[in-house]
Amino acid sequence: MSTEHTATGLIGAPIRRVEDPVLVTGKGCYVDDIHLPGMLHLAVLLSPHPHAKIVSIDTSAARAIPGVRSVLTGADISERVNIPAPMVVPGMKIPPHPPLARGAVHAAGTPVAAVVAQSRALAQDAANAIEVEYESLPAVTDAEKALEPGAPLARTELDNNVCFLSTKTNGDVEKAFAQADHICRMHIASPRLVAMAIEPRGAVAKPEPAGDLTMWLSTQAPHRARADLATALGFPEHRIRVIAPDVGGGFGSKGPLYREYVLAAYLALKLGRPVKWIATRSEDFVGVIQGRDQAMTSELALKKDGTMLGLKARVVANLGAYLYANTTTPTQRMMGMAPGCYQIQNVHVEVAAVFTNTVPTGPYRGAGRPEAVLNIERLVDKAARELGIDPLEIRRKNFIRPEQFPYRTGVNVEYDSGDYEKSLSEALRLSDYQELIRYRDEARERGELVGVGVSTFVEPSGGAGFESGTVRVERSGEFTILTGSSSHGQGHETVYAQVAAEKLRVSMDQVAIRHGDTLAIQQGVGTFASRSAVTGGGAMVIAIDRVVEKARRIAGHLLEAAAEDIVQADGGFAVAGVPGKAVTWRQLAAAAYGGRLPRGMEPGLQETAFFDPKRDAWAFGSHVALVRIDRETGRLAIEKLVLVDDCGVILNPLIVEGQIHGGLAQALGEILGEHMIFGDEGEVLTGSLMNYAVPRASDMPPLIVGETVTPNPFNPLGVKGVGEAATNGAPAVVANAVMDALAPLGIDHIDMPYTAPKLWAAIREAEAKRKG
Amino acid sequence: MSGKMERVTVPINVTVNGVKHEAEVEPRLLLVYFLREHLGLTGTHVGCDTSQCGACTIHMNGRAVKSCTVLAVQADGVKITTIEGLAPEGTLHPVQEGFREKHGLQCGYCTPGMIMTAVHLLETNSSPTEEEIRHALEGNLCRCTGYIHIVEAIQWAAQRMRSSHVSS
Amino acid sequence: MFPASFGYFAARSLEEALELLTEYGEDAKLLAGGHSLIPAMKLRLATPRYLIDLGRVPGLSGVRIDGEALAIGALTAHADVASSAIIRQRLPGLADAASVIGDVQVRNRGTIGGSVAHADPAADLPVILTALGASFVLASPSGKRTVAAEDFFIDFYTTALAPNEVLTGIRVPLPPSGAGAAYAKLPHPASGYVVVSAGALIIRQPSGQCASARVALGGMAGRPLRAGATETALQGKALTPQVIAAAAAKAAEGSDPIEDAYASAEYKRQVAAVYARRAIESAAKRAGQKI
Ligand SMILES: Cc1cc2nc3c(=O)[nH]c(=O)nc-3n(C[C@H](O)[C@H](O)[C@H](O)COP(=O)(O)OP(=O)(O)OC[C@H]3O[C@@H](n4cnc5c(N)ncnc54)[C@H](O)[C@@H]3O)c2cc1C
Ligand code: FES
Ligand code: FES
């Protein structure tokens, strides 16, 4: 494994992005920018009802509109066509998920009919002209309520609402609890969130003359989309080409193969014309998989001195009404992180994954991690308060220590490396922690609601199997690098080129990074779970190493020297210690493609590597927050936020910083106001930007970002993921600070988001209780 | 266009990025779709349907507006600048440069709108405070960057524009 | 995102607009800045058959002093109200309100007349204009009439405008010296519209007593609500922080605010008092009171 860096200094430099000149001039090409001759437009009619039988659908008025080419309902599509969802947990129930409802809708936003017309406006006119008669069925939207006896069935074809139960047990949990001096109990619900990538979903499907299908999708995972599309349609995978052009954000939500993508493909093949579908924001609000919505009930067993003995957690995860391929991911992530950064070996975690009449959930930036961090970090803080121990002390006492790595946790996963104490100390230093405490205590004296919070956390990155990389030396001696990990804002074209150029000892402009096209790129997985640098970067480096090795042998042949004497030099290779004896990549390519090769060597200079780190890279961090709550209005102000993250080796600090800022903004959304709310009848109450509050520029708090660097020993670059760091850690730290601020009032729990009316109501109630 | 006849299409004259266009449009056509679909200027994006996200921001007679909330017919006789027309081909406006310099974009989808709003701001206020910049961005959502680098990009551009103003 | 089809007329004069309005009656809608109407049309919540665009009618925008009043053309954009030198100097409270509407882009297109005519209970300008005692000039084929804010705003999206009338201008009485006005708003975190807001006009005697107070609240009902109890409690009193706070605490008396998924009625009553206090304090300061 090559970890030594050559001298060009690209890795770790704050290089400006190569993607940007195109994007800042409006020359990017997103799915909606694709215009093909003869293209038709798809509009999809969605159910406004959370749960209903479809009594009848009258499409006659829609068909009568001039310019309408096709109108489809569920009855027109074979029952075999379904969105694929794998059996991730043995025995899980997988009810059908058709692209158009067949007989009933189980969530608001379920597609009911599809229209293809000459223009988007006409397609919309026609969709609006379709008359659907629904017969309401009882709906359940809250997952915990869905588990109660007698709860309405979210999926009427099943006999209860449980999709699956899974548990993990380690050690002797009962004994640990029996020996405990104290048991800290907590129930916490994470709000349901909307990913809200600014580019809505979109697809263009084009039937090719030879019977193939080309699709442009706003997706994070083109190869997966292709495989899923093949399964859904029963269409041969090798005849499908999926292209992810510029993608305007994803955050997990553009992982699945959406129903409308299948419809676009189906209709394009049926009509023999290209078909485009672009979601509106309203459609995205009820169509895109949503995040969080896990309710956690936990118990932490402790000794008087704060030593943690055991943990029990029961998680009720709301899956929504339908399964996508990755719907279950957050539940698995949550379980795998339950003990956080603490030595707790006696652990019992169980997850109940539940169907409800809501929009399907799935991975959204963090994908189970923010829930897990929130759970353990709130629990630890609450335990400290109950035992009268300092929140720093209880953490330090129980941290996994640096010398214990690799460390197998109580949920049977192995953490690669870490130094939590160092991270915490750095966060305390940067925040001037003692000063914050003094400030808080003084404010408290004056009756003000000020709080300080700390959270220390781990977060797995990588995951989801392999990724691939191909390095091709062109005849010119320039490099084309193909990665299976396709970018949608993470700057792959820059970061991968930085790494490649440094490893190849060439300049960045001699390297072109290509991604997002299943025809051009070897099998790949995609970009999510903070995996690109770890897994995709790893694959590329292995491919580079192989190319360099082969080139070294060719160089030896050309320079008539032993391969061991050949060393990499700027722009190519040289014979060690013999000035002037060198070859360039161009000369090597000429030899490789022109037959001037060592005896028995295959021609060509291209290598492909598949890399599966087989284990997650465990990034970690420590956050500190200072908050103030206005008693009169309940308004929460974050006065200071310190984030110290450790993502191993930093490839480009500018990009890492950008990931942290962006992740923080999404955490802030969860903290301050984002919340997808369903009414009593299951109706969507926050289905638009008019009532779903996404942070704006003025919502960002004063921020200090710090770092520690603990290289990951298990991947070629020593990196860990960073894309989710702030999203995972920040909700917990603010929650701890808010509860610290409210502690004098006797308040020990409020679920996020901390909207002003909610905090005000809690304060008022607490004050009334104290008086009364 | 005036007259008492209901018409299927209405003629308009619009100058976009310095080029005059005559077109017949349906009254219901939104300006953003006129720019994107009739003129092929796809740098102006659509990110919402409630006029909140600002991805569609352009300049109409020098003012930043959301082109998803203007009918193409309302733009009759108007001068429009889009992201494509901010700087001559092959060059960057200082704000565009600032976004690159300070990593003010990730996926780039909100970026054209952000830049158009920022340019409007700097044209009316050449040295905005950080708070003024954040306030000016109230109508532009970005889900990727957390805004911090965007604010820095605008500060960078303001500085650059002031110094080039002094030197010229 | 795609409005239903409609017929479009660009009126070239007020007369032409009125003629068209008379001809198409209830089937037609006037179009000003379009920043309430077009969003509703995009979602097909509004599907007018005809639009009569006022955008090219001359003489309907601008700000000038007309005797004892400020005359503001109906088509004046929010941004121009916010930045008008006359308004900033004589009625900064109105500029405050105009400058917290939506965002820059919205303020560049939306008009004062459109906001008044639309009468959204979560809008800003109706509130401050009620506090300032503004009146509205309505033109119809039979002539002009002027209606006071109090009589103009009737309920949710309902005003005294007759189907054949065009709002041409807004008249705001210029406050005497020793007066101050201000506006304070709690915006909805998502939409930016009013959750609760307060506009206040305080006329102060040189002695520091309150000669008269007008306080209007937004977000509390289907139309701007006068905070009568607060006004009475200020009348004739020294404008001390204690007096202001005590008066403001009565702001929501007798109101029955509309709830939504964000704010309860109780919460709105609470913040109405807070924002009334903030508006009154700033207004009193502008009137010369040291607080
Ligand atoms: C994203 C966004 C955020 C916003 N935030 C706020 C906010 O925070 N606070 C706020 O107060 N407003 C807000 N608005 C609304 C904005 O202020 C609108 O501009 C205003 O409400 C309507 O003015 P307009 O000129 O755009 O009217 P239009 O949309 O053109 O018309 C609105 C209605 O008034 C009628 N009308 C218009 N002009 C006249 C006239 N002269 N005579 C008779 N009838 C007329 C029309 O027929 C129509 O029914 C927001 C709008 C958007 C899009
Ligand atoms: S598209 Fe979102 S504001 Fe115009
Ligand atoms: S850069 Fe992606 S939304 Fe702003």
Structure, briefly:
With 168 residues, chain B is an alpha+beta fold.
Structural account:
The complex is a heterotrimer of chains A (772), B (168) and C (291). Chain A has 772 residues and is α+β, with helices and mostly antiparallel strands. Chain A is built from 19 helices and 30 strands. In chain A, helix 12 (420-431) crosses helix 13 and helix 14 (492-504) runs parallel beside helix 15 (532-559). Chain A is globular, with a radius of gyration of 28 Å. The termini of chain A are far apart. Residues 1-7 of chain A have low confidence and may be disordered. Helices cover 34% and strands 15% of the residues of chain B. Chain B has five helices and five strands, in the order E-E-H-E-E-E-H-H-H-H. In chain B, helix 2 packs across helix 5 (148-167). Chain B starts with 9 loop residues before the first strand and ends with a helix. Chain C folds into three domains: 7-53, 2-Layer Sandwich (Uridine Diphospho-n-acetylenolpyruvylglucosamine Reductase, domain 2), CATH 3.30.43; 63-173, Uridine Diphospho-n-acetylenolpyruvylglucosamine Reductase, domain 3; 179-286, CO dehydrogenase flavoprotein, C-terminal domain (Enolase-like, domain 1). In chain C, the strands form four sheets. Chain C has a five-stranded antiparallel β-sheet. A four-stranded antiparallel β-sheet of chain C has the order 11-12-13-14, with helices on both faces. Chain C is globular and about 60 Å long. The A-C interface holds A 120-121, 124-125, 128, 280, 282, 632-634, 672-673, 677, 685-686, 689-694, 755-757, 760-761 and C 1-2, 4-5, 43-44, 186, 188-191, 260-264, 266-267, 270-271, 274. Bound molecules: flavin-adenine dinucleotide and FE2/S2 (inorganic) cluster (FES) (2 copies). One FE2/S2 (inorganic) cluster sits between chains B (105-111, 142-145) and A (198, 249, 489).
